[in-house]
């Protein structure tokens, strides 16, 4: 452990004993830590290899190319038990992403509404929001998931006696069966929507320009809705004005046609959304409260209207407080979606778990789960960081 | 002038619409037309749901020692189910005659936890820690037995609320010191130590607890040398500790960051070594401000212990579920879940209120 | 200046008139039978002990607080629950707060043009020119592109005054504009206020700066426990206060 101090050594008066030199100590402790960690890993890996050898389990991911041999309840890509484990894992991954994305969207909406309600000058409304927040936050999510699942399965009738159709939707203990568009003609509607979106964005920019140049304030909302209505109508007509839907129908033992939202998905989605929304509500509340009363008063005394105060003064300041903790709630929701395994929704953990049980390849399975979640977590935080810097830049 | 008509009113009092019940209603429920509509919607929601719930839970419900048949006929809640099964839900398959032991253990846990919430007792310092150590040893003796004439009970027979408290408390007690080291590591000036800490913390925080528990239940056995095996409960406990440590570390790091630089410099200037300055100057301050978030972390950990259901341990949630697996009591799952939820709620709600109060209280101390 | 004369032209009645005004917070009677008339171009200085209701009174003038009995007229319009009326009045009344209340997420310039462009509906370019003109007048044009957090307290308060002036108000309200400032910054703010008064702006100032009151005040108002105890021209007020409470207050404040 000779530290190179070069020629300066000669110039330095009384030098400390080498083992009291902070630099030497730092290097020493770091080496100890690294060696310790390596030794621990070596010990674990060595044990694992011996154990695996003894049990005759081959390690590696080659088993993933084998036929999975188990069925999966639902998925967004086609899958049969004859497909490989890889394909099964892909189905699980897509299911995780699906429930996380839909959950995040709804948790954000419900959370914002409840958070604003919590601050309402209306005593009853504020109380109701508090009851919602406190009762959901203080009970384990897993219990809530079990409860929603039991309720859906327990209260709704069997598929044969399904409630409905309400607007073409059947409710049964297997989930919701919904009608879906059945021709490509509906793409016209979608195209219309996208075109209208672009048009409204253009209108917004134009109105802003007009406001800058003349001071005139033009309404975007009314004309915007009109544009949506008209353009989507035109798109629909251009698509051949389709009116039929592929509706679900009960035949024999189950529904055919239409789409299916399984009760497992519903329970998981409901549980995740309501639970996370309670946390987001508290974040939104504290974000809005973080904008002082003085800001409102100053804006009001300038003569700004309530909507303008929210748009120019309160929201931009509140969002800065709200976004970072909300990001971690999004991450939590994504990670919590792994509780799906408890109610039988085939998410990545559920599918991998079955894979582990069938193939005995525990290490590989858990490695896959961890890699997937690390990637998801990382992507969400990268995206939100990017969004945060963008927001900060717009304001600077 | 226009105000002649008002002259004979009593102007030393606010208008009747401003105070009293009317004032309160006007201000809190009907301050604008929008608020009035909201109030009406809320009132409608309340009168359509609350009476039904009360009828179900209280009026038409079945209480006490009644058979499932009576419950099936009644329209309301079947609290008889809870009456019948409460010992099982609370203590699981622990030998029936010995239930007083987990009960006392539970009381010790709760006394320790709630006792530590009393601020004046913090002055006891290490004595409090010793009390904890003593309490936890007593819990161990009671639960396992095998000495003092207590019958030995294997931990595979533990269950219910004591198990939940056991996992949560031991999880926190051991995760805490580990968290301190990780937090100090993350703020260390030594790159190797910093990177190791960061890697550990971020890796654990990036994955769900369930994957750690799976790892604990299926991978730990592979990690150990041949012939050594640890029990499932202990493995889950280790998983929970390793998981909690990463979150605890981040809370403590926030506390360390809140300490002004001047404090670090002053400690250096006094010639204290790294560990001396941490122990005497920095940590006492940092930990004090991290107590409220720590309590929140504990609440999270307490709720998270319910995940051990997935690897098949008999915690409170599992015993509640198993209770209505009994053919006779099948239909009464709602009562079972509500009972279980109520226990979790009482505990978590109390703790979260406590942490809110504490935060304000500590902030007050700071200003003096 | 031009805008002050312009402001005085259309309405020859009083700028602000409070007639038998009362206000309660719950059961607590904060303002008791307040009668006050402010002519166009008049400078009224309000003083009184803490908690006497000074802030509450001037906050009623632009409806940051609601009064419950009596009448309140601003520039001939009565303040009622009518939102349009309230907005119309707020356009004409500028307010400067003790704690500045600048918008921290906007630059100084953005703070200044927000009201003119969205309330007065003035083209952005014109609003910027006006804003720069007022920034010159409060002597900080070079700070236009900074954020409020980067300025000193005195500079922030001058920006706040400029922000109100950009709305070309007919009446300016000041609620203890200097009491959150360090002594060396008080003068720079008072100078701006004195200049404004000399230009003929109608002003209602809550302040304990008695030097300022003597220099520019037309009328002194002394409040205590929610009442106007004494209302007098400054010379008379300072040399010969009639009421005991005024005497006591003045002796306390001037002894400092
Ligand atoms: N929102 C409110 N609710 C209840 N009481 C209030 C409220 N705002 C002010 N008060 C009370 O009204 C009284 C008058 O307050 P106000 O702020 O007008 O006093 P002030 O004369 O401006 O005092 P200071 O010189 O300290 O600013 C005080 O007793 C205060 O406690
Ligand atoms: Mg005041």
Overview of the structural elements:
The complex is a heterotrimer of chains A (396), B (368) and C (256). By secondary structure, chain A is an alpha+beta fold. Chain A folds into 2 domains: 14-54; 85-182 and 244-391, MetI-like (MetI-like fold), CATH 1.10.3720. In chain A, 67% of the residues lie in helices and 7% in strands. Chain A contains 13 helices and 8 strands. In chain A, helix 3 (85-118) runs antiparallel to helix 12 (348-359) and helix 9 runs antiparallel to helix 10 (306-336). The radius of gyration of chain A is 29 Å and the shape is globular. Chain B folds into 2 domains: 15-59, no CATH class; 84-92 and 160-367, MetI-like fold (Orthogonal Bundle), CATH 1.10.3720. Chain B is built from 14 helices and no strands. In chain B, helix 9 (209-223) crosses helix 10, helix 11 runs antiparallel to helix 12 and helix 13 runs antiparallel to helix 14. The model of chain B is unreliable at 1-7 (pLDDT under 50). In chain C, strand 4 (69-74) and strand 5 form a beta hairpin. The model of chain C is unreliable at 1-8 (pLDDT under 50). Chain C starts with a helix and ends with a helix. Chain C contains 10 helices and 10 strands. A 6-stranded mixed beta sheet of chain C has the order 6-7-8-3-9-10, sandwiched between helices. Chain C is an alpha/beta fold and 256 residues long. The chains are: A alpha+beta (396), B mainly alpha (368), C alpha/beta (256). At the A-B interface, helix 2, helix 4, helix 5, helix 12 and helix 13 of A face helix 2, helix 8, helix 9, helix 12 and helix 14 of B.
- Name the CATH superfamily assignment of the largest domain in chain A: MetI-like
Structural class of chain B: mainly alpha
- Mean pLDDT, all residues of chain A: 85
Mean pLDDT of chain B: 83
> How many domains is the backbone of chain B divided into?
2
Spatial order of the strands in the main sheet of chain A? 1-2-3-8
Q: Could you give the count of β-strands of chain A?
A: 8
Task: Fill in the CATH topology of the largest domain in chain B.
Answer: MetI-like fold
- Number of E strands of chain B: 0
Q: H/E order of the elements of chain B?
A: HHHHHHHHHHHHHH
Secondary structure category of chain A: alpha+beta
Distance between the termini of chain B: 55 Å
Globally, the shape of chain B reads globular
